[in-house]
Amino acid sequence: MKVHIDHVHVYVKDQREAAKWYSTVLGLEVEADLEHWAADGGPLMVSGDGGHSGIALFARPNEKSSNQSTVAFGMAGDDFARFVSSLADMDLVDRNGQVLSKDSVVDHDSSWSVYFPDPYGNPVEVTTYDYDSVKESLGIE
């Protein structure tokens, strides 16, 4: 039996606003063939790989997210380096309110990660296992 992660539930105040944020920051797109689910209180599905895996954005308009599980997004090393280089343009902050920059990259010895919340407080991680290429691309010693 082969098992894979299909989607993760993320709770947000506004599904469309959240979908726009995930599109702007991570390039995720609304899954058009499942968009009708959101019309009846169901999730708005967004994905970065054509629907093989994704996020189910559930509306909780009057509540702050209680999700404390980090949703981690993997990238190839060159994409991760571009993402880190574009942090200043995105005005993202970490959970302490500090603006993200190249200095925010966490070295896990075999991977690199950046951590930040979405606008609803859901923890997000962007990671890559292309350790050596990112170290070289970002000039990290």
Number of strands: 8
Low-confidence stretches: none
The main sheet comes to: 4 strands, mixed
The count of helical stretches stands at 4
Helix fraction bin:
10-25%
How many domain regions? Answer: 2
The assigned structural class equals alpha/beta
General shape: globular
N-to-C SSE string, H for helix and E for strand: EHEEEEHHEEEH
Distance between the termini: 42 Å
Strand order of the largest sheet: 1-4-3-2
Strand content: 25-35%
Q: What is the mean pLDDT?
A: 91
For the CA atoms, what is the radius of gyration?
A: 16 Å
Descriptive overview:
The protein is of the alpha/beta class and 141 residues long. It has two domains: 7-59, no CATH class; 71-138, no CATH class. It has four helices and eight strands; from the N terminus they run E-H-E-E-E-E-H-H-E-E-E-H. It has helices at 15-26, 77-85, 87-90, 131-138; strands at residues 7-12, 29-30, 44-47, 54-59, 71-74, 106-107, 112-117, 123-128. A four-stranded mixed β-sheet has the order 1-4-3-2, with helices on one face. Strands 5-8-7-6 form a four-stranded mixed β-sheet, covered by helices on one side. Helix 2 runs parallel beside helix 4. The longest helix is centred in the N-terminal third of the chain and has 12 residues, at 15-26. The protein starts with 6 loop residues before the first strand and ends with a helix. The mean pLDDT is 91.
Secondary structure layout plus pairing:
Layout: E1 7-12, H1 15-26, E2 29-30, E3 44-47, E4 54-59, E5 71-74, H2 77-85, H3 87-90, E6 106-107, E7 112-117, E8 123-128, H4 131-138
Parallel strand pairs: 1-4, 5-8
Antiparallel strand pairs: 2-3, 3-4, 6-7, 7-8
Helix pairs in contact: 2-4
